[in-house]
């Protein structure tokens, strides 16, 4: 079995290779047909390639160990890649809208529709399979960059399927106006995808807390493992890429020794690290006079 870091590097490099292959296929489909809808698909594949390269850089950087200048690690580097991807998606959508308007005014006719659509369908199948793999891999590794790339590819697949169906109708009916209309629909879908990626990534850069479900799990673990303490208060969490930082105040009896308090902390930390992948735990011990007795976990 390869080491996780080697596997991550391999997956990131594979994304670049697949993006190149898909881009070549989609531009071949556009070149064969002259379809602005297929042009929009091909243009988005350039974004796929750019973001795959950015993701490779960010993922490599995020796995560097902590150093004197970045004492909490480099986990957030992946969010910068995801934000860049969101911005590029929006730019691609605007370029597609421009091309759709030009095509609408010129009333371009389709050529070699069968060959072009077949090529595009192959590219779509490759993207779909890779997107499913990236979702599984990214969620398992808590990687914002891989998950953002998977969402983008999924958006691309949905757009491509819509384009395929629409262009089949164009070929059957001769309604060339459907071609730029499909491009507009693709552009709107891409805009929504870009906004979602930017929103989620900025939330990570702003240290958003874990979900309510994860926080409930954290509280349950602390309550179970903190036997001997009095209560916990000021529980705070924040996401930083694949890392989750957890900190809280642990109130213990005033007569408890430092060694006994440390045993409780070790027990809680070990349980959290086992249940919450990537957790970094900081516990501040306080004497019982600091107990708040409200809005806390009372043990």
How would you describe this protein?
- By secondary structure, the protein is of the alpha+beta class.
- Helices cover 69% and strands 10% of the residues.
- It folds into 2 domains: 4-205, Up-down Bundle (Alpha-lytic protease prodomain-like), CATH 1.20.1510.10; 212-298, 2-Layer Sandwich (Alpha-Beta Plaits), CATH 3.30.70.
- It contains 8 helices and 4 strands.
- Strands 3-2-1-4 form a 4-stranded mixed beta sheet, covered by helices on one side.
- The mean pLDDT is 77.
- GO terms for molecular function: cadmium ion transmembrane transporter activity; ferrous iron transmembrane transporter activity; zinc efflux antiporter activity.
- It is found in: Cell membrane.
- It is a multi-pass membrane protein.
- Its main location: membrane.
Task: Map the helices and strands.
Elements: H1 4-33, H2 36-62, H3 77-106, H4 113-140, H5 144-173, H6 178-205, H7 212-225, E1 231-240, E2 243-252, H8 258-275, E3 279-287, E4 297-298
Parallel strand pairs: 2-3
Antiparallel strand pairs: 1-2, 1-4
List keywords for this structure.
299 residues, alpha+beta, single chain, Alpha-Beta Plaits, zinc efflux antiporter activity, four-stranded mixed β-sheet, 4 strands, cadmium ion transmembrane transporter activity, Alpha-lytic protease prodomain-like, cell membrane
Major β-sheet annotation = 4 strands, mixed
Distance between the termini: 43 Å
For CATH, the homologous superfamily of the largest domain is named as Cation efflux protein transmembrane domain
Order of helices and strands: HHHHHHHEEHEE
Helix content: 55-70%
């Amino acid at each position: 079995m390869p080491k996780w870091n080697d596997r991550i590097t391999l997956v990131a490099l594979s994304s670049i290779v697949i993006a190149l292959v898909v881009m070549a296929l989609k531009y071949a489909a556009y070149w064969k047909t002259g379809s602005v809808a297929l042009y929009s698909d091909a243009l988005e594949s350039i974004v796929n390639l750019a973001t795959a390269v950015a993701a490779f850089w960010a993922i490599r950087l995020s796995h560097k160990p902590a150093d004197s200048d970045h004492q909490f690690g480099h986990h957030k580097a992946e969010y910068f890649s995801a934000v860049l991807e969101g911005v590029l998606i929006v730019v691609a959508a605007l370029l597609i809208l421009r091309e759709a308007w030009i095509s609408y005014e010129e009333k371009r006719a389709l050529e070699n529709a069968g060959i072009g659509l077949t090529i595009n369908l192959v590219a779509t199948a490759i993207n779909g399979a890779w997107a499913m793999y990236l979702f599984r891999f990214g969620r398992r590794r808590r990687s914002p960059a891989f998950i953002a790339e998977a969402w983008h590819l999924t958006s691309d697949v949905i757009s491509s399927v819509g384009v395929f169906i629409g262009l089949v109708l164009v070929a059957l009916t001769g309604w060339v106006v459907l071609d730029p209309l499909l491009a507009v629909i693709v552009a709107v879908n891409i805009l929504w995808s870009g906004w979602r990626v930017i929103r989620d990534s900025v939330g990570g850069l702003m240290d958003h807390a874990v979900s309510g479900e994860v926080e409930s799990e954290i509280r349950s673990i602390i309550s179970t493992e903190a036997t001997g303490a009095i209560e916990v208060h000021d529980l705070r969490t924040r996401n930083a890429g694949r890392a989750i930082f957890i900190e809280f105040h642990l109130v213990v009896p005033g007569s408890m020794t430092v060694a006994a308090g440390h045993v409780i902390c070790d027990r809680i930390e070990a349980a959290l690290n086992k249940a919450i992948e990537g957790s970094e735990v900081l516990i501040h011990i306080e004497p019982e006079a600091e107990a708040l007795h409200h809005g806390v976990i009372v043990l």
